[in-house]
Amino acid sequence: MNESLRQELDPNRLDNLFILGVDEISYRKHHNYLTLVTNHETGKIVYGAEGKRANESR
Questions:
Q1: SS3 letters for the chain?
Q2: Nearest alpha carbon to residue 24 among 49, 58, 42
């Protein structure tokens, strides 16, 4: 994951996280993947990782 994105994520982003969504998106002609975890109450991204099925490795 891009270092600037890591720096922008709030270190307390997982506090009181109860409703979340996990989404896998592709970009650059569907050859690169990004897995995102979103807080559905705030709409903010709480975690992101490059690669398909990146959420399974955590």
A1: CCHHHHHHCCCCCCCCCCCEEEEEEEECCCCEEEEEEEECCCCCEEEEEECCCHHHHC
A2: 49
The alpha carbon of residue 19 and the mean position of all alpha carbons in its chain are separated, in whole angstroms, by 14
Read off the pLDDT of residues 27-38 as tens digits, 9 standing for 90 and up: 877 678 888 899
Taking the C-alpha atoms of residue 27 and residue 35, their distance in angstroms, rounded to an integer, is: 11
Residue 2, phi-psi category: left (phi > 0), alpha (psi -120 to 50), beta (remainder): beta
Q: pTM of whole model > 0.85?
A: no
